[in-house]
Amino acid sequence: MTDEEAENAYRSGLPGPLGVIDTLISKLEAVLLAMGVLLMAINTIANVIARFVLGDSIFFTGEINRILIIMITFAGIGYAARHGRHIRMSAIYDALPVGGRRALMIFIALFTSLVMFFLLYYSLIYILDLQSKGRVLPALGFPIWLIYVWAPLGFLITGIQYLLTAIKNMTSRDVYLSTGVVDGYKDTETEV
């Protein structure tokens, strides 16, 4: 690892076991996202080459890309939460003093965490329903419920991330958008 990579590596701002959990989850997200994007690119390129060289597409390419899109989407929501990249409506929030922003951020993070755990529960029910129907992917023959296991995993990771964000805001004087991102605006103006 180079010095630049070491600087850009995620470091949890949480103490003790929470920091270890946060760091492990960040590594899992990074692997899932990188692997998903690379596999999708390789799969798509192989299909294009097969179509032009052999005159026939690879019959299971669409299903593999569908699986990878689902994986990338649900791994990505945790990544977005971890890096404070989620969409915010901040007019009222920005008008509050630091203590009010911290209190509101704790509420937002806890509420969002509860919503993620609620969605986790319902995604598990959905997967169990799919499993009971016994449907399979036509080309690959996998049970269709297997491609949706990424949804509860993504909701779990995101729920944990927002819960850790609430804890970070409860134990810090600054306001945090995530465990490692302090609230604030970067100066985007450039010199002419």
Overall description:
The protein has 192 residues and is mainly alpha-helical. It contains six helices and two strands. A hairpin with a 2-residue loop joins β1 and β2. It is elongated. The complex comprises the extracytoplasmic solute receptor protein and the two transmembrane proteins. Part of the tripartite ATP-independent periplasmic (TRAP) transport system.
List the helices and strands and how they pair.
Elements lengths: L2 H6 L7 H39 L6 H22 L8 H5 L2 H36 L16 H21 L5 E3 L2 E2 L10
Antiparallel strand pairs: 1-2
Helix pairs in contact: 2-3, 3-6, 5-6
Question: In brief, what are we looking at here?
Answer:
By secondary structure, this protein is an all-alpha fold.
